[in-house]
Amino acid sequence: TRSVVVIHNGKLIRSVHARGFNAMTPQYSASMSKTLAAALVGILTAQGKMATTDAGLLPEWTAAANDPRAAITVDNLLNMESGLGFNEDYGAGGDPARMLYAENSAALFAAAKPQREPPGTRWYYSSGDTNILMRVARLKSGLSEKDWNAFPRQALFNPMGLRTALFEQDAEGDFI
Fold first, then answer.
1. Angle at CA 74, nearest 5°, toward 159 and 114?
2. Hey, which end of the chain has fewer CB within 10 Å, N or C?
3. CA atoms within 13 A of residue 43's CA, in its CB half-sphere
4. Three-state SS letters, the chain
5. What pLDDT was estimated at residue 24?
6. 101-140: per-residue pLDDT in tens?
7. Cα Rg, the chain, nearest whole Å
8. Is the pLDDT of residue 27 over 90?
9. Which residues lie below 8 Å from residue 136, measured CB to CB, with a gap of 6+?
10. Which residue, among 107, 131, 154, 103, has the nearest Cα to 30 in the 3D structure?
């Protein structure tokens, strides 16, 4: 932990930072970005651009008849219950490093995983699910590339007063 910030009723109560860090030090969000992803999906849902019950989310899943991945819903991805065989091991042979650093599309790498079990039957922590969710959100948003790139800032960061927040994208333009 490098910083702890306590906010109550919209007011900063206390912030404490490790040696060498302060309120303006950029920090890697890692898995905290999953919360940002869920918030952006919530915004798009409120705008009527997607629903948690939507299935058949990716063309890669609907191209072949009887692909079990076509049954995965937005809700399954939000709850990390896709049932995909994503290996969340951060050691050698795990999927996260390859997904984030060796693939052009984190989402398509994760989406290509075989169905391990039926969607919605088991929770399994999966960064892959969140990256797939961000690709689905981009596709369902109907936004141009320029507008999608600006979407987190305009829809979430600016209203929250987050002036320096950055949500990184992979080479395909999906937020990771």
1. 130
2. N
3. 18
4. CCEEEEEECCEEEEEEECCCCCCCCCCCCHHHHHHHHHHHHHHHHHCCCCCCCCCCCCHHHHCCCCCHHHHCCHHHHHCCCCCECCCCCCCCCCHHHHHHHCCCCHHHHHHCCCECCCCCCCCCCCHHHHHHHHHHHHHHHCCCHHHHHHHHHHHHHHHHCCCCCCCCECCCCCEC
5. 85
6. 899 999 999 999 999 999 999 999 999 999 999 999 999 9
7. 17
8. no
9. 50, 54, 57, 58, 74, 77, 107
10. 131
The amino acid at residue 174 is D
Joined together, the tokens standing for residue 35 give 């919360």
CA 81 to chain CA mean position, Å: 14
In whole angstroms, what is the distance from residue 76 CA to residue 95 CA?
A: 19
pTM of the predicted model, to two decimals? 0.89
Residue 140 · residue 44 · CB < 8 Å: yes
Are residues 145 and 138 in contact, defined by beta-carbon separation less than 8 angstroms? no
Write out the two tokens for 96. 């996260």
Residues shown for the chain = 176
* CA 63/CA 105 separation, integer angstroms: 19
